[in-house]
Amino acid sequence: MFQKYVILFFSGGIIGLDTTAAWQMLISHPLISSTLIGWIFGDLPFGLFFGLTMELIWLKDIPVGGAKLPEGNIGSFVGVSTVLFAQPQGALNQPWVVFGGFLYAFLIAYLAGFTVLQMRRNNQILAKWADHFAVKGSSSGVAWMHRLGIVHAFFHGAIWTVVAAWLGARGLNEFALWTRDWGHLTLFGLKYTLLGMGIGIVGYYHTSKKNYPILFAGIVIGLLIGWLWG
Amino acid sequence: MRRLRKSDLLKIIWRSFYIQGSWNFERMLNLGFVFCLMPILNKLYSDPENRKAFLKRHLQYFNAHPYFSSFALGAVARLEEKACVEKWTNFTPIEKFKFRLSSPLGAIGDRLFWGTIKPASAILGVFLSLVGGIAGPIIMFVLYNIPHSFIRYYGVFHGYKKGFDIVSELSLRRYQKYFDALEKLSLFSVGILSGFLFLASAKMGLEIGAAFFLSAGITYFILRKSLSFYWALFVSIVLMFWVSFIF
Predict the structure, then answer these.
(1) B31 and B150 in a common domain
(2) With contacts defined as CB-CB under 8 Å, which chain B residues touch A133?
(3) Do B23 and B141 fall within a single domain?
(4) What is the ipTM of this complex?
(5) Which one of A2, A71, A92, B170 is least enclosed by Cβ atoms within 10 Å?
(6) Residues near A161 by Cβ (< 8 Å), separated by ≥ 6?
(7) A213 touches chain B (CB under 8 A)
């Protein structure tokens, strides 16, 4: 178990960096990060399920430095890791736990948004220290202030992931016992309502009235592909 | 006379992947920008006073799209080289140049990557995940990172080649027709995914198709009315319970 938390610590750090601080190669996006961690922890189908369900919802976020957002990438990564820890023997057989994981992902995304703001304020302090190094002509001092900002972003992602997944896994196990007799929840219902929400979000942020004919043409082609696919 | 080599520009490209590492509310990308230019500083200036002046002028405000800032990095590297060779005493043109580049680099980059390429590759990724499993995330990653890496590389070299003249190439209006075409392509892919998902959900049961359709429509309506995103989440959860327990 300790080994799993070490993996989660480093992968959470990478997610924290890729979101805005470094690379920005979409590794931190739910579709990629959830699938990867699902594969690493031995439940690829669940990782893919969680990632594709969450991906469209967080497309509303634009990863510019100043925006105040829910931190969807960290939230989703925590959500998927929590479920994988709580149900290592096939999470897709436990729809209530999956549902709990989604709710937890939204909660963590919201809370992590505040700590990101604090991180930006801390970077302001680093920029001031960099000014002092510049006055002294110390280029290595200035460079190290920037590196500290990167390290800060790494630890922000890593600590959020490990602490929230550890707490969440305990909570989800309790939730699984609690909801045992609540009846059957359909995973397809969960998947398609959240995908519908994602389509609504993408539709709002990426469509304009003048382009509606193109959207409708796409819908017709999509229906046709769906029909041919069987 | 050239003092900078290709290897110096390659070092800038490598460092540009970390340019947003210390983003702050006051001067935004300032520290990241100077961090990327460190190889230039070490190559051009050895005198302590010149080094201090270099650090101070590049710690001023700078903001742009992280990938497109590579154009500014390349162009500033060229100007600093010129200033060093010609022994400039006034560096105000470089400072003004950087400030002037901020807006177009931000506007073009945000629109091209965050507004078009990212949603298009994510939509394709989701679509392929639904029909082909693991291919989805792989193709999303590859498809997005080809233009991303290209812009990082091309931006530094092209900026270095053009120097001050890069300003005339970075006008939003100049790229409008490409943006329009890409936005239409992106929108078309949203349509394809919507149609496909609607049919796929309806095949699972009419109530699931209805939940998908209602969730999409209500979310769109909530966002149009400028209500919180969490209302959309609440409605989707209610719809999910409706599907699970009433039908």
Answers:
(1) yes
(2) 55
(3) yes
(4) 0.94
(5) A2
(6) A8, A9, A11, A12, A13, A15, A16, A74, A77, A78, A81
(7) no
- CB–CB contact B31 A224 (8 Å): no
Position B1 in a domain:
no
pLDDT tens, position by position, A104-155 = 999 999 999 999 999 999 999 999 999 999 999 999 999 999 999 999 999 9
Name all contacts of B128-136 with Cβ < 8 Å and 24+ positions apart.
B129/A31, B129/A48, B129/A51, B129/A52, B130/A52, B130/B196, B130/B197, B130/B200, B131/A229, B133/A48, B134/A35, B134/A44, B134/A48, B136/A31, B136/A48, B136/A52
Specify if B158 maps to a domain.
yes
Structural domains of chain B, count: 2
- In a shared domain, residues B211 and B195: no
Residues B244 and B194 in one domain: no
Measured between CB atoms, does A146 come within 8 Å of chain B?
yes
CB pairs under 8 A between A and B: 323
In this complex, is the C-beta atom of A197 within 8 Å of any C-beta atom belonging to chain B?
A: yes
pLDDT value, residue B247: 66
Cα separation, A30 vs A131, whole angstroms: 37
- Model confidence pTM above 0.90: yes
Helices and strands in chain A: count of H runs, count of E runs: 8, 0
Of all residues in chain B, the percent with pLDDT exceeding 70 is 99
In sequence order, the 6+-apart residues with CB closer than 8 A to the CB of B99 are B61, B62
pLDDT at B197: 95
Q: In the structure encoding, which two tokens stand for residue B204, read together?
A: 């699972």
Query: pLDDT value at position A102?
Result: 96
Contact A30, A58 (CB under 8 A): yes
Angle of CA points A52, A56, A62, to nearest 5°: 130
| B54 found inside a domain | yes
Confidence at residue B1, expressed as pLDDT on a 0 to 100 scale: 58
Kindly tell me if the per-residue pLDDT of A90 is higher than 90: no
Domain span at residue B186 reads 6-204
State the pLDDT at residue B26.
93
Q: Residue B67 gets which letter from DSSP?
A: T
